[in-house]
Design a protein that fits this description.
This protein is α/β, with parallel strands linked by helices. The protein has helices at residues 25-37, 58-68, 71-74, 86-92, 108-121, 141-149, 161-171; strands at 13-18, 40-45, 77-81, 97-101, 127-130, 153-154, 176-177. It has a domain at 13-139: HUPs (Rossmann fold). The chain is built from 7 helices and 7 strands. The strands form 2 sheets. It has a 5-stranded parallel β-sheet, with helices on both faces. The two termini are 24 Å apart.
């Protein structure tokens, strides 16, 4: 992996908000990508009133994301739950940008609309749209939830080991891994920097 050490400059904080129910490997990859641009990242587990009852509580999702990060990444990332408007909150923290993950085939209209609404709320706070790699671009929390709830399966590589463990606890032993082991957490080389 490339060196993600932080150069000498004013620390740049970005905020990456999402529902993360559950967090996927695509979410973890977006975190890694954001750390190539920003010095620190606040990951906010938010509430979406348009979605039916969540599979995991905000506190469980915070714990799953945190447990999925390597120690070096965790030094530059803070994970918390938040209910409210993200853009004004991020601006109040001194963030320099919002980060959003986007699947080019499914999310463009929604994410561009959300970025424009956030720009209206906080005009000085840009939104940076990041794509997951081809390996994870299809991946969504909905896909993971549906394969677990409807099919009793966990697709290899779709979630980190801590998320897989949480899914197994939630659904019991009926969950099977489709074909092979789940990869380890995202590994990023980073220098210490707290939020």
């Amino acid at each position: 992996m490339s060196d993600l050490s932080v150069p000498d400059r004013t620390s740049r904080l970005a905020v990456y908000a999402g529902v993360f129910d559950p967090p996927t490997m695509a979410h973890l990859e977006i975190i890694e990508s954001a750390l190539r641009i920003f010095d620190q990242l606040l990951v906010l587990v938010s509430f979406n009133p348009n979605k039916a009852g969540p599979l995991f509580s905000p506190e469980e999702r915070v714990a799953m994301i945190d447990a999925s990060l390597t120690e070096s990444v965790r030094r530059r990332v803070r994970v918390a739950a938040f209910h409210g408007l993200i853009a004004p909150y991020a601006e109040s923290l001194g963030a320099c940008a919002l980060v959003r993950g986007m699947r080019p085939y499914a999310d463009a209209d929604h994410e561009i609309g959300l970025a424009l609404m956030n720009q209206a709320l906080s005009p000085r706070l840009p939104t940076v749209l990041l794509f997951a790699s081809a390996k994870y671009v299809y991946l969504s929390s909905s896909f993971v939830r549906e394969t677990a709830t409807l099919g009793g399966m966990i697709v290899p590589g779709s979630v980190s080991p801590p998320v897989e463990e949480a899914l197994r606890k939630r659904f019991g032993r009926q969950l099977t891994v489709v074909d092979g082991p789940t990869p380890p957490p995202v590994a990023v080389s980073a220098t210490p920097s707290g939020l």
